[in-house]
Structure formats: structure tokens, C-alpha cells
From TrEMBL:
<keyword id="KW-1133">Transmembrane helix</keyword>
<feature type="transmembrane region" description="Helical">
    <location>
        <begin position="252"/>
        <end position="271"/>
    </location>
</feature>
<dbReference type="GO" id="GO:0015995">
    <property type="term" value="P:chlorophyll biosynthetic process"/>
</dbReference>
<protein>
    <submittedName>
        <fullName>Bacteriochlorophyll/chlorophyll a synthase</fullName>
    </submittedName>
</protein>
<feature type="transmembrane region" description="Helical">
    <location>
        <begin position="104"/>
        <end position="137"/>
    </location>
</feature>
<keyword id="KW-1003">Cell membrane</keyword>
<dbReference type="GO" id="GO:0016765">
    <property type="term" value="F:transferase activity, transferring alkyl or aryl (other than methyl) groups"/>
</dbReference>
<feature type="transmembrane region" description="Helical">
    <location>
        <begin position="227"/>
        <end position="246"/>
    </location>
</feature>
<keyword id="KW-0812">Transmembrane</keyword>
<keyword id="KW-0472">Membrane</keyword>
<dbReference type="InterPro" id="IPR050475">
    <property type="entry name" value="Prenyltransferase_related"/>
</dbReference>
<dbReference type="InterPro" id="IPR006372">
    <property type="entry name" value="Chl_synth"/>
</dbReference>
<feature type="transmembrane region" description="Helical">
    <location>
        <begin position="29"/>
        <end position="48"/>
    </location>
</feature>
<dbReference type="InterPro" id="IPR044878">
    <property type="entry name" value="UbiA_sf"/>
</dbReference>
<dbReference type="Pfam" id="PF01040">
    <property type="entry name" value="UbiA"/>
</dbReference>
<dbReference type="GO" id="GO:0016020">
    <property type="term" value="C:membrane"/>
</dbReference>
<dbReference type="InterPro" id="IPR000537">
    <property type="entry name" value="UbiA_prenyltransferase"/>
</dbReference>
Length: 304
């Protein structure tokens, strides 16, 4: 005797992703970089927090769990075919985010990000619109900037470092941030181009098979690794020179020391780019972001 119901339901309830799968789609581990850059922007503004803590906290949430998470959801949706080759266990190719839920989450997070940005002022809203537009252009056809490593990495570097830094400074005042703040944000955005190249080493085979011309695919792993190191190092060297010229020799010396430490780690990375790209991301990149904070503190001190 069967225990199955004699009459089966005519309508199957729609599949809904589990909260854990949604959180994995939004990739909290990637939120650190823009949140840190935003904090550096707040520090570099020189403004006293005091009653502005709510604005600063809202801005940090905007930079990480909202705008950055939006870019991750959009990228995973439009990259689902590549991920099926490179990382089939990700939420979308594995089926843990079923149907078109990945796209719906990306759209919903975009709208939520814009709503929060609008509450933080016109400069913040403008930066958020620009960053979200780049996030969609990076992943979505027909533009799909990520198909070329030169353009795609530039867009990522700007969104991860420069825009959050600018936004953090803008949150603390009603005027356009100081030119020195914008200059440092631009330099660290350029350096982040190299950091983005490091992320491409893990997906060389899938990128090659699906027509994505990342820099490791275009140049080969050894040349791409050397380029990434130069692109990360040169902007930091310029920061050292600028800080010294602006009357902050101790800050300049600390950034120089952090850069020297990166040089030692880069030498080891270059010996095995594909095997040590992730390792360098967890070591050398840490020294770079400490240099970012050092530069921000120099500006916070009120340079002449």
C-alpha cells in the first residue's frame, strides 16, 4: 500500500533560496575593501565625527553591504556560465540560488543602495549612481567591461577604492572634497587595478574558454604578475613623494616602509604567480591598505 497522496498539488511552490545562499551570493568577504576605503575618506576629511557617527555608519553600510554586494550579485548572475566551469559550487551554478533569483537580488540591492545614498546627500548619491552604473557595465552585456582586463580592472579599482574614499570624505561635509583627497583616492584606485589582476589568476582556464580576456589570459601569467606588481607599487611610491612634499615626512616614511615590505612579498609571488596570487592578496594587500590609512591620517592632521 502506497503512502503517497492520491491527489498531488497542481501548483508547485516556487523555489526560494536559503538565507545562507543569499549571503554567500552577496560575498561579505569582499565588502572589506570599499568599507576600509570609505573609512579612509572619513579620516582624510579631517572632520570631527561627534554627532556625525550615524552618517559615517550609514556610509560604511552603503559602501559594503549595499553597493559592493550589488556588484557581487550582478557579477555572479552574468558570470554563471563561466562559474559553472571555474567554480561550480557557487550559489547560482550549483542551483542553491534557483531560477532568476540572482538577477532579482542584484536589482533589489541596486534600488536599496540608491535609496540610502539619496539620504546621505547629493555628492554621495552621485558617487553611488556612478559606482552602480560601473558595476552593471562591468558584468552585463552588451558592454561587459570584464571581457577585457584593462577596462574591467580599472572599473573595479575605481569602485573598490576611489569612489568609496571620495564618498567617505563627502559624507563629512557639504562641499566637494579637497583636491589632495581626490588625488590620493585616484592613486589608490590605480593601484587597485593590480590587485584586481591578482583575482584573475584563479580563473584563467574558464576565462580563456569563455572569451574573457583577463590580463593573465592576454599576457600570460608571468607577465601579468609583473605588471600587477608595478601597477600596485608605483602609485604608492607617488603617495610617498606627495606626503613628503605636503609636510608629512613621518607618514611618508611609514608608507615607504610598508611598500618595501610589499616588495619582499612580491618577489616571492613572482616566483609562482598562479600558485601564490591568493597568498599575496592576503599578505601584500594588507600592507597596502595600512598605507592607505596612513595617508588618510596625514591629511587628517591638517596639512598646510
Amino acid at each position: 500500500m502506497t503512502t503517497e497522496p492520491l491527489i498531488k498539488p497542481l501548483i508547485t511552490p516556487p523555489a526560494v533560496p536559503a538565507p545562507r545562499a543569499l549571503l554567500e551570493l552577496l560575498k561579505p568577504i569582499t565588502w572589506f575593501a570599499p568599507m576600509w576605503a570609505f573609512a579612509c575618506g572619513v579620516v582624510s576629511s579631517g572632520a570631527a565625527l561627534q554627532e556625525r557617527w550615524p552618517l559615517a555608519i550609514a556610509g560604511i553600510l552603503l559602501a559594503g553591504p549595499l553597493v559592493c554586494a550589488t556588484s557581487q550579485a550582478a557579477n555572479d548572475w552574468f558570470d554563471r556560465h563561466v562559474d559553472a566551469i571555474n567554480e561550480p559550487d557557487r550559489p547560482i551554478p550549483s542551483g542553491r540560488i534557483p531560477g532568476r533569483w540572482g538577477l532579482y537580488v542584484a536589482i533589489a540591492w541596486t534600488l536599496l543602495s540608491l535609496a540610502v545614498a539619496a539620504l546621505l546627500g547629493p555628492f554621495v548619491l552621485g558617487a553611488a549612481v556612478f559606482g552602480l552604473a560601473l558595476a552593471w557595465l562591468y558584468s552585463a552585456p552588451p558592454v561587459r567591461l570584464k571581457r577585457d582586463g584593462w577596462w574591467g580592472n580599472a572599473a573595479c579599482g575605481l569602485c573598490y577604492e576611489g569612489l568609496p574614499w571620495f564618498t567617505g570624505a563627502a559624507v563629512m561635509g557639504s562641499a566637494l572634497p579637497d583636491g589632495r583627497i581626490i588625488g590620493l583616492a585616484a592613486l589608490y584606485s590605480l593601484g587597485a587595478h593590480g590587485i584586481m589582476t591578482l583575482n584573475d589568476f584563479k580563473s584563467i582556464e574558464g576565462d580563456r574558454r569563455t572569451g574573457i580576456r583577463s590580463l593573465p589570459v592576454q599576457l600570460g601569467a608571468p607577465r601579468a604578475a609583473r605588471l600587477a606588481c608595478w601597477v600596485m607599487a608605483v602609485p604608492q611610491a607617488v603617495v610617498v613623494v606627495l606626503l613628503a612634499a605636503w609636510g608629512a615626512p613621518w607618514h611618508a616614511a611609514l608608507v615607504a616602509a610598508l611598500l618595501a615590505g610589499q616588495g619582499v612579498l612580491m618577489h616571492r609571488f613572482l616566483a609562482d604567480p598562479r600558485g601564490r596570487a591568493a597568498w599575496y592578496n592576503g599578505t601584500g594587500t594588507l600592507l597596502s591598505v595600512l598605507g592607505m590609512l596612513t595617508a588618510a591620517l596625514a591629511l587628517h592632521g591638517g596639512l598646510a
